[in-house]
């Protein structure tokens, strides 16, 4: 089944055209990124892989709107010469990554007017993502009128959290009246990792318990009990929890008023600084983990401190989640940093031997793109590195809905 996966941002559209049967049988004939929509100069990077031959097309021209961006994508996909399909109608389904639907949907859903209304209702809680996500849906409905469109929500996997985990200890009416609660994010990735862990361990998902550590530009950690998310580090927005590339993660809320008084910044700029100027970048001025590790290795003290803060916060969450999970099959590292940075994994595991976390230094350093174990032989807790694939998860869920 040919499925187009879309992730529409405020000035970008990420897309993948997947041809898939199941999690092990799929190809990726084309994927790409439309960026700088609405700016004076836009760009499309379109990559194809046909019969093992890779090619890349880069186009630069103004792209005033998402509709124009999508028109270009369709033109590239169906190009008589270099296209991977003959016409848009060959696409049998469109899967949309959508940030949040609050508590309305716990699973992916076929998009209709009611679903669109629910996405719109959550604009205030996902102001940067939900509006462009909805725009992406409306644009795709125009270009692929006969293909079922499915919304896959980044919050959905965490809807199994119990109230003791998702409520903030604030006036309860803030929850009932304004829906203030922890929603959690990266749900599509944590769900993919949960299924992949169960498969790797040869257990049913419903009997698999793990701590899933997603370390990319955004970072989150999830406690999964018997296949279900029971706690996660991100909150009402993706700002809470771990130290991230540019986000602070956990912070005393009273710090906000204090720093506003001291600097004269308004609430918008302060929140913006917590999202974009904090985390690794706030401490050592760079947010790409490769640069941080390199600088720390070169003797940069602030990079070293940033790295310590990043890994110490993760250690604290591992401890917390081990305390609340009655059993634990595996701790899993994923996403850009989790999959690739052996020094970061080593620092996270360092000193946690008393918890049964025993890293094998050699296995940890071996680079590979596939699922692998990195714990010492005979260690009580499996330590796994599993590449996440959120687009594949979206495609699988879209296919599942279409197949009924
Ligand atoms: P996103 O959250 O945008 O999907 P990714 O999962 O691609 O992000 O992760 C991006 C992060 O992964 C960046 O901080 C980058 O430095 C880090 N990263 C990628 N490759 C490596 C590597 N080989 N070593 C260390 N960090 C890496």
Features:
alpha/beta, Nucleotidyltransferase, domain 5, 2 domains, six-stranded mixed sheet, 22% strand, globular
Q: What's the topology here?
A:
Layout: E1 2-8, E2 13-22, E3 25-35, E4 42-50, E5 53-61, H1 66-77, E6 93-98, E7 109-110, H2 113-121, H3 130-143, E8 149-153, H4 163-166, H5 172-178, H6 187-201, E9 210-215, E10 219-225, E11 228-232, H7 254-263, H8 267-276, H9 279-284, H10 289-297, H11 301-324, E12 330-334, H12 335-340, H13 342-349, H14 361-365, E13 372-373, E14 382-385, H15 390-403
Parallel strand pairs: 1-6, 6-8, 9-12, 12-14
Antiparallel strand pairs: 1-2, 2-3, 3-4, 4-5, 7-8, 9-10, 10-11, 13-14
The structure holds adenosine-5'-diphosphate.
Residues 216-218, 245, 288-290, 335-337, 340-341 line the site of adenosine-5'-diphosphate.
How would you explain this protein's 3D organization?
The structure is a single chain. The chain has 404 residues and is α/β, with parallel strands linked by helices. The protein folds into two domains: 152 residues, Nucleotidyltransferase, domain 5; 204 residues, ATPase, nucleotide binding domain (Nucleotidyltransferase, domain 5, 2-Layer Sandwich), CATH 3.30.420. The strands form two sheets. It has an eight-stranded mixed beta sheet with strand order 5-4-3-2-1-6-8-7, sandwiched between helices. It has a six-stranded mixed beta sheet with strand order 11-10-9-12-14-13, with helices on both faces. Strand 13 and strand 14 form a beta hairpin. Helix 1 crosses helix 3, helix 10 packs across helix 11 and helix 11 crosses helix 13. The longest helix has 24 residues. It is globular, with a radius of gyration of 22 Å. It starts with a strand and ends with a helix. Bound molecules: adenosine-5'-diphosphate. The site of adenosine-5'-diphosphate has 12 residues, from helix 10 and helix 12.
């Amino acid at each position: 089944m040919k499925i187009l996966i879309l992730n529409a941002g405020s000035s970008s559209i990420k897309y993948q055209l997947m041809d898939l049967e199941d999690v092990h049988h799929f190809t990726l004939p084309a994927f790409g990124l439309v960026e700088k929509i609405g700016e004076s100069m836009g760009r499309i990077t379109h990559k194809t892989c046909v019969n093992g031959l890779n090619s890349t097309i880069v186009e630069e021209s103004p792209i005033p709107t998402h509709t124009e961006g999508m028109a270009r994508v369709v033109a590239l996909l169906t190009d008589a010469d270099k296209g991977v399909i003959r016409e848009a109608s060959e696409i049998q389904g469109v899967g949309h990554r959508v940030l949040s639907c609050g508590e309305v949907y716990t699973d992916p859903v076929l998009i209709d007017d009611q679903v669109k209304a629910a996405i719109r209702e959550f604009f205030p809680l996902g102001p940067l993502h939900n509006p462009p996500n909805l725009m992406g849906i409306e644009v795709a409905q125009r270009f692929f009128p006969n293909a079922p469109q499915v919304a896959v929500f980044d919050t959905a996997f965490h809807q199994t959290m119990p109230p003791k985990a998702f409520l903030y200890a604030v006036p309860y009416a803030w929850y009932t009246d304004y829906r203030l609660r922890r929603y959690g994010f990266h749900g599509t990735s944590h769900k993919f990792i949960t299924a992949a862990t169960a498969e790797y361990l040869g257990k049913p998902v419903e009997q698999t318990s793990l701590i899933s550590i997603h370390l990319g530009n955004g970072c989150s950690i999830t406690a999964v009990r018997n296949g279900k998310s029971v706690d996660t580090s991100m909150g009402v927005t993706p700002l809470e929890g771990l130290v991230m590339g540019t986000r602070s993660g956990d912070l005393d809320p009273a710090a906000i008023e204090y720093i506003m008084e001291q600097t004269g910044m308004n609430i918008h700029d302060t929140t913006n600084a917590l999202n974009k100027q904090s985390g690794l970048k706030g401490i050592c001025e760079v947010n790409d983990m490769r640069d941080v590790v390199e600088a720390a290795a070169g003797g940069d003290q602030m990079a070293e401190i940033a790295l310590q803060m990043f890994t110490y916060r993760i250690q604290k969450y591992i401890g917390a989640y081990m305390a609340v999970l009655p059993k634990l099959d595996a701790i899993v590292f994923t996403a850009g940093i989790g999959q690739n940075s052996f020094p970061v994994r080593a620092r996270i595991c360092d000193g946690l031997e008393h918890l049964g976390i025993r890293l094998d230094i050699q296995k940890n350093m071996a680079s590979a793109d596939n699922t692998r174990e990195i714990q010492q032989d005979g260690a009580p807790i499996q330590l796994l590195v599993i590449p996440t694939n959120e687009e594949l998860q979206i495609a699988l869920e879209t296919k599942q809905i279409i197949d009924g």
